[in-house]
Design a protein that fits this description.
Strand content: 25-35%
Number of domains: 1
Radius of gyration: 17 Å
Largest sheet: 6 strands, mixed
Oligomer: single chain
Order of helices and strands: EHEHEEEEEHEHEEEE
Length: 264
């Protein structure tokens, strides 16, 4: 079997609350109804890999529904991994972070929280997937929404991680990752997180950023482009689309990739 084309989708699912301002307003039935909408979206788009942000594992405001397990079953994905960046125990527990759904086995997974806050903490999930022709590394990223300086610090944390992974794998074994997620910043700001990460990646090889134009937030009337997929030269982007749908306060971004070089 050979895989030469891939579809990747990234979406901040806003804790499964849909368009509501606060997920705690919903009972279990309301959360599940919206998760079914997300599941229908994933089945319709038939992405090979889905990168999700704000995914709860065991949170009181989601009636302790494991969102990634729900979507994995609903959209029929064989593989998944959740990197929890926020965990709080007690009477009102919280546990959430970034999740990945994949049609390919996950051979390696690692995640980092950028800090130690019990609520509102951001982070990234790094996975390496096993494809029939090689390996696919993916970074699923969620950055701070308040502070530009904090976002830059978080990008520097990611850069350190990638350089350490490169050193572990060596030049022969390391592949440049696809980087995607909710950056909470726009690509056109030269001193913000997207541009900072893109400059670093472009210094390594000829990355491209998608979507080139377009807005993803808020989903009802988007005025900001906050969600991106950064693609290394091992792939050619055949299609990129911001999907018009209302399962979250963000709109999904989907890309169709053609694998140009054999993955190691």
């Amino acid at each position: 079997m050979s895989v030469r084309q891939l579809r990747l989708l990234t979406l901040n699912i806003a804790h499964g609350r849909g368009l509501s301002t606060y997920q705690g307003f919903h009972g279990a039935r309301g959360i599940e109804r919206n998760l079914l909408r997300v599941g229908r979206l994933l089945k319709r788009e038939a992405a090979d890999v889905v990168a999700l942000q704000e995914v709860d594992e065991d949170s009181h405001w989601n009636q302790r529904i494991h969102l990634l397990d729900f979507l994995k079953a609903e959209a029929c994905y064989p593989h998944s991994h959740l990197g929890v960046h926020n965990r709080r125990g007690g009477r009102l527990p919280l546990a959430y972070g970034n999740g990945l759904l994949s049609r390919f086995p996950i051979e390696h997974a690692d995640h980092q929280a950028f800090g130690s806050a019990e609520i509102g903490e951001k982070g990234f999930l790094y996975t390496e997937l096993t494809l029939p022709d090689g390996h696919l590394p993916i970074v699923n990223l969620h950055l701070d929404y308040k502070s530009r300086l904090r976002r830059i610090e978080q990008i520097e944390r990611l850069i350190v991680f990638l350089e350490e992974r490169h050193a572990q794998k060596g030049n022969e074994g390391y592949l440049s990752p696809v980087v995607c997620g909710d950056f909470n910043s726009r690509s056109g700001k030269p001193n913000d997180a997207v541009a900072h990460l893109f400059k670093y990646l472009e210094d390594q090889c000829a990355y491209q950023i998608y979507p080139k134009n377009g807005r993803t937030f808020p989903s009802l009337l988007p005025i900001h482009g906050l969600d991106f997929i950064l693609v290394p030269p091992s792939y050619r982007v055949m299609r990129c689309e911001i999907l018009r749908c209302y399962v979250s306060d963000h709109r999904p971004v989907v890309v169709d990739l053609e694998i140009l070089n054999k993955l190691k």
